[in-house]
Amino acid sequence: MEKLPGKGMVTVSSVIMLIWGLINAGYYDVAKLVLADDPSSKAIACGVVVGIASLAAVIGGIFGIAGSNKVAKASAIVVWAAFLLILAIVSGIVSLVAGDSKVIGVAMMIVGIIVPFVMFMGASKNRVK
Q1: What count of Cα atoms within 13 Å lies in the side-chain half-sphere of residue 81?
Q2: Lowest CB count within 10 Å: 21, 38, 60, 115, which one?
Q3: pLDDT in tens, 98-127
Q4: Contact predicate 127/78, CB 8 Å
Q5: Measured CA distances, 127 to 7, 34, 122, 124 (Å)
Q6: pTM assigned to the model
Q7: 63-86 pLDDT per residue, tens
Q8: CA-to-CA distance for 54 and 28, rounded, in angstroms?
Q9: Which parts of 25-66 fold into alpha helices (H)?
Q10: How many whole angstroms separate alpha carbon 111 and alpha carbon 113?
Q11: Are residues 46 and 28 in contact, defined by beta-carbon separation less than 8 angstroms?
């Protein structure tokens, strides 16, 4: 089986996305909601949105790793990466508005946009092949 041109981009971005999704889920869902004495409605909304985005990132990371060298999966990875990009923007805005730390919110938004974009570009290269 020959290596597809976007395999490296899809694999690396998928691993980063998997790790980042697990970190975000742990930070927001556990630290903000479980450990708080009385979480505010802003914290709950932020935790739910970021939790959904984190779960989607974990699923996208696994899906990207599994399909990084398969032409048949490239179109589905492109769609999934576009979905993750939109979800990262929404999640970033919600965490900036409702979250406590603006630095963490901005970092999450930047990584959340760049990593799916790299995955999108790599899968697009695989699709054209």
Answers
A1: 27
A2: 38
A3: 766 788 778 878 888 999 999 999 999 998
A4: yes
A5: 11, 42, 9, 5
A6: 0.85
A7: 999 999 999 999 999 999 999 999
A8: 9
A9: 41-66
A10: 5
A11: yes
